[in-house]
């Protein structure tokens, strides 16, 4: 195999990727990596300014096409409408990354059902609804890839995150179920399970010296994950032909946390 063949297997040139929650944080890092691999990116976010900023950054750094798209994924029943709009703009969707998410941290006994539902809704229901809305188009065009952003919390439980832990555990099952049902249409589904990154989602935790020290103490590599460098290129791999036979898996990218 020559170098060009190797590059081709990892390339996403000409493909269109929809990434939810790409206005900042991990989603923005994933978007940058996929853009560097040649994909055009639809930057979906509830915060318009962030969606536009990410899209502008992608265009200026990589020269790909980027489309900001404002959507509130707390309304999963609108997924079909979102996907119709996006298809109207881009013509096709080859890759979907379900990344948008929220966290509610409090003791399980104090959780309201509204809080529980809000976390389950965006991590689990919206991921299902977005995939269900996109897959018919993927089938028509001969295939596609879905990547769900799970978490090490899908395997281990950390106190005060009961809904998030349940949602991320569910997302691992959802990933397997999608893979099993949609493989025959050449639609592959996998997930990435990040360890800790410093983003707005985790900022409060890292501002607490005791909890921050506890987290760092659990990571064998003694550093946090970087959205683009550590997670983004794993997403490129899972979206590309280099991972052609990987299906229904959660790839944990955690600096060794789960192994320790
Ligand atoms: N940060 C970590 O340590 C970590 C670890 C494991 C998994 N994750 C997962 O990674 C994903 C991204 O998290 P992050 O750390 O980048 O958080 P973040 O808060 O920085 O980013 C989340 C993004 O989702 C968007 N979003 C939130 N609610 C939305 C809605 N209703 N509709 C549309 N967009 C919405 C936000 O505007 C934001 O841009 C989440 O699924 C999270 O659970 C994060």
Give an overview in words.
With about 260 residues, the chain is α/β, with parallel strands linked by helices. It has one domain: Rossmann fold (3-Layer(aba) Sandwich), CATH 3.40.50.720. It has 9 helices and 7 strands, in the order H-E-H-E-H-E-H-E-H-E-H-E-H-H-H-E. Helix 3 (about 50-60) links the parallel strand 2 and strand 3. Helix 2 runs parallel beside helix 3 and helix 4 packs parallel to helix 5. About 45% of the residues are buried. The model has no long low-confidence stretch (mean pLDDT about 95). Bound molecules: nicotinamide-adenine-dinucleotide (NAD).
Please describe the structure with a list of short key phrases separated by commas or semicolons.
single chain; 260 residues; alpha/beta; Rossmann fold; seven-stranded parallel sheet; 9 helices; binds nicotinamide-adenine-dinucleotide
Based on the coordinates given, report the CATH architecture: 3-Layer(aba) Sandwich
- The 3D shape can be described as globular
Assign the CATH superfamily.
NAD(P)-binding Rossmann-like Domain
- Low-confidence residue ranges: none
Pattern of helices and strands: HEHEHEHEHEHEHHHE
Strand order of the largest sheet: 3-2-1-4-5-6-7
Count the domains: 1
List each distinct ligand once: nicotinamide-adenine-dinucleotide
Q: What would you call the structural class?
A: alpha/beta
Strand segment tally: 7
Q: Treating each run of at least 4 consecutive H or I residues as one helix, how many helices?
A: 9
What's the CATH class label? Alpha Beta
Q: What is the radius of gyration? A: 18 Å
Mean pLDDT: 97
Strand-residue fraction?
Answer: 5-15%
End-to-end Cα distance, whole Å, is 37 Å
CATH topology category name: Rossmann fold
Instruction: State the helicity in percent bands.
Output: 40-55%
Major sheet size, sense and barrel closure: 7 strands, parallel
């Amino acid at each position: 195999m020559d170098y060009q063949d190797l590059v081709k297997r990892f390339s996403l040139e000409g493909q269109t990727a929809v990434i939810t929650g790409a206005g900042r944080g991990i989603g923005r890092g994933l978007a940058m990596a996929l853009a560097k691999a040649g994909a055009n990116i639809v930057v979906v976010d509830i915060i318009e300014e962030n969606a536009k900023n990410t899209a502008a950054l992608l265009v200026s750094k990589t020269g790909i096409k980027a489309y900001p798209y404002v959507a509130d994924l707390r309304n999963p029943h609108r997924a079909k409408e979102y996907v119709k709009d996006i298809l109207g703009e881009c013509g096709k969707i080859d890759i979907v990354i379900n990344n948008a998410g929220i966290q509610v941290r409090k003791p399980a006994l104090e959780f309201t059902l509204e809080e529980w539902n809000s976390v389950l809704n965006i991590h689990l229901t919206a991921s299902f609804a977005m995939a269900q809305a996109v897959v018919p188009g993927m089938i028509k065009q001969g295939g596609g890839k879905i990547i769900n952003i799970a978490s090490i919390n899908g395997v281990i439980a950390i106190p005060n995150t009961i809904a998030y832990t349940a949602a991320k555990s569910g997302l691992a099952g959802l990933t397997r179920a999608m893979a099993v049902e949609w493989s025959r249409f050449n639609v592959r589904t996998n997930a990435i399970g990040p360890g800790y990154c410093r983003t707005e989602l985790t900022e409060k935790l890292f501002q607490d010296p005791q909890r921050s020290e506890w987290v760092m103490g659990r990571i064998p590599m003694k550093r946090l994950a970087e959205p683009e460098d550590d997670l983004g290129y794993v997403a490129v791999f899972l979206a590309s032909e280099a991972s052609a036979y990987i299906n229904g898996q959660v790839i944990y990218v955690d600096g060794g946390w789960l192994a320790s």
